[in-house]
Amino acid sequence: MRLVIIGAGFAGMYAALSAARLRDIQGVSSEELEIALVAPEPTLVVRPRLYERKPETLTAPLREVLKAIDVVYVQGSAEAIDNKSRAVDVATSEGTRQKLSYDRLVVATGSRLFRPNIPGLAEHSFSVDQLDDAIVLEKHLHSLAGLPARNGRDTVVVAGGGFTGIETATEMPARLRAIFGKDAKPRVVIVDRNSAIAPDMGAGPRPVIEDALRKLGVETRLGAGVAALDKSGVTLSTGEHIETETVIWAAGMRAAPLTAHIPAERDNLGRLLVDRDLRVHGVAGVFATGDAAKAACDDLGNYALMSCQHATRMGAFAGNNAAAELLGVPTKPYHQRAYATCLDLGEAGAIFTRGWDRKLELVGTEAKQTKQQINTVWIYPPRAERAAALASADPEHVGEV
């Protein structure tokens, strides 16, 4: 029997760990149940941190962890899924193609930044979506120091006032001063079509966020969208033109395109609809998890968000349940009633909220310490020691806050 997991992000990593954990508990060998993880690199990209400086350092190796728990790593990109023959078409790193058969499949392919067809967006914008994107932005920011201090050189426009946009914008003043000098006065502008900043955060945390933006000198243009970009800068839907060398697009996510190979219903974000065990509706043998799945967290109408916090726990349940079906043991319905948000606000600190109603618990320095703990410890892979790695993947405890 073979369980194939596509993706080495947070959901894919925990799917592999959890499936291996259940296999170990059941006393089944890796010859009897092979668990294979397909990804271009045996590396976890710590994507929630890509708004920070030195993004090339924000990865964690997975090869030794996978080896410790007897998970086969298949280096390559999954390019197609044939659910009838139960096979994944993999383009290998050597330039060949491989058909990888499966008895159960976990789709943990994550998400990608949504880039609409705005004139000049593809040619003149940056992002912190993927590791390569963040590295390109970092190199660009450093290159600005060699340009004359005019024509918007010191101005950064961030399109999107959600989590990623706010964390990117509030980090930017310190990043730019580190490049231009401590006396530099960079200008940062957030553009968002909503009438209020951080629309998903609600009225409770918003005053703290707005105060942080004021302290950092970050401007906002609310109720406005990006109409066009060119070499001189960005034109907003209001007609305002902002001269800048740097526009960072942070406005919306979609499930990775591979989900389109599964003949099943998807939501408006491209996520596959799944049941409480994270099985894809109507497609035998296929589970979806993380940003690739729309999953109910509870019986109150709350659904998992495209976030590291949800992906880790969803991954653990998907891996466990896919393995459980093959081993003939009961599955565990996914649930995630506890929910917390920790939003970085750069030199202004952070905020920590708990619950779907986003009740403020920590602000400022104390919240910043929690954010740093999350970013540098909690979301990293377990150490490459079999017992510790397997113990970390109990689905009932993964992602608890």
UniProtKB/TrEMBL annotation:
User: Out of the domains of life, which is the source?
Assistant: Bacteria
Q: Does the keyword Oxidoreductase apply?
A: yes
The FAD/NAD(P)-binding domain covers: 2-315
Q: Which SUPFAM superfamilies match?
A: FAD/NAD(P)-binding domain
The record's annotation in InterPro entries points to:
FAD/NAD-bd_sf, FAD/NAD-binding_dom, NDH-2
One matching Pfam family is Pyr_redox_2
UniProt keyword list: FAD, Flavoprotein, NAD, Oxidoreductase
Which Gene3D superfamilies does the entry mention? Answer: 3.50.50.100
The entry sums up its family as follows: Belongs to the NADH dehydrogenase family.
Name used for this protein in its record: NAD(P)/FAD-dependent oxidoreductase
Q: Which organism is it from?
A: Bradyrhizobium quebecense
List the taxonomic lineage: Bacteria, Pseudomonadati, Pseudomonadota, Alphaproteobacteria, Hyphomicrobiales
